[in-house]
Design brief:
Length: 340
């Protein structure tokens, strides 16, 4: 319990320091002084806490160096008492009617029609880093920082993948019968299916078709190679500021496009690849309502004894427990759009 408390305390402090450094309120973060001797630090109780505090700060600094791309999409719930499994609901249609109120009568209360239910399970994600004897013998404080930064970068890359991959790897169909038929299928609260919008003569016209199928769509995921054609389609020609804004310009904004080409992490000679949005496709979605992340606890970092047989002096382990809910269908979901 003591380590858990220290972990949460250091994480809170690290977030605050990183924020202050980024905003210019603080010149530097946590650094090792010239007098620091890692061997003495790790070998004592007080020094061990100082070491873990520095590692936690470096980790959060590394997290900040990788853009977080999903926060505008998901609604976040944090509760340490979340059960291991729970039921989540896609947003169904809200049914409300205003009626004249007569004396002695009752107000008619609206209802929220049920959407599709899904069981959400929590998962534990963990990673470890090791500090070997050479780092201590040669007092390589710079390497401690380098390892912590890489740890933080890997964590944010994993979070981006966890949240965006359900959208990118989702199943999309093209319902026959035209755009209105696609819209009806997308919005059906019980038998709905996320739609694939076919390319139609131009990117601008295709985006117009997409808005017809998902009128509430406002946030987009795309590949960076499609940046020019997307922004050109939204803003129009060089003289677009002299024209009346189109429906696309009123609803869609380049500021609401997040470009995600995927990422990767190399560990022990093995490459772990996180697929991104394929070139030539765009995902238009309605943020927040049908996209939820549940966090039992965010990244928790602790250190422990190492492994003398491998000359590992100390190990640091980070872990988080969280669950996701991504509802692709209904009018609050997501559609996939072919750009060519």
């Amino acid at each position: 319990m003591k380590n858990e408390v220290l972990s949460e305390q250091f994480a809170s402090q690290a977030r605050k320091i990183v924020s202050e450094v980024k905003s210019g309120k603080r010149e530097k973060g946590i650094e090792f002084s010239d007098e620091v001797v890692l061997k003495e630090m790790i070998g004592t109780a007080d020094g061990g806490q100082e070491f873990l505090e520095k590692v936690t700060y470096d980790l959060y600094q590394g997290r900040e160096s990788v853009p977080v791309l999903y926060k505008d999409i998901y609604t976040t719930y944090v509760d340490a008492s979340f059960p291991e499994t729970m039921t989540a609901n896609e947003m169904g249609p809200v049914q409300i009617v205003f009626l004249e109120k007569f004396e002695g009568g009752e107000v008619k209360f609206g209802t929220l029609a049920p959407g599709l239910q899904k069981v959400v399970s929590f998962h534990t994600y963990a990673a470890g880093i090791e500090y070997n004897e050479d780092m201590l013998e040669y007092n390589q404080t710079w390497k401690v920082t380098e390892v912590g930064l890489a740890f933080g970068e890997a964590y944010t890359k994993m979070l981006n993948h966890l949240h965006l991959n359900p959208i990118i790897a989702g199943s999309y169909v093209t319902t026959g019968g035209g755009l209105l038929a696609q819209k009806a299928k997308q919005e059906n609260p019980t038998t709905g299916a996320a739609q694939l919008i076919a390319y139609n003569t131009s990117v601008r016209q295709t985006l117009m078709d997409a808005i017809t199928v998902l009128p509430k769509g406002s946030f987009m995921l795309a590949n960076s190679s499609d940046r020019f054609i997307l922004e050109d389609a939204i803003w129009g020609s060089l003289y677009s500021d002299l024209k009346t804004p189109t429906a696309i310009q009123r609803q869609l904004s380049p500021e609401n496009i997040h470009y995600y080409d995927g990422d990767y992490v190399e560990v022990g000679g093995k490459t772990y690849t996180y697929p991104g949005v394929a070139a030539g496709f765009l995902y238009l979605l309605v943020p927040k309502t049908n996209f939820k992340e549940y966090i039992k606890h965010d990244l928790r970092v602790d250190s422990n004894d190492g492994d003398l047989s491998r000359l590992i002096i100390t190990q640091v382990v980070g872990r988080t427990r969280r669950a996701l809910f991504a509802g692709l269908s209904t009018k609050y979901g997501v559609i996939k759009i072919a750009l060519k």
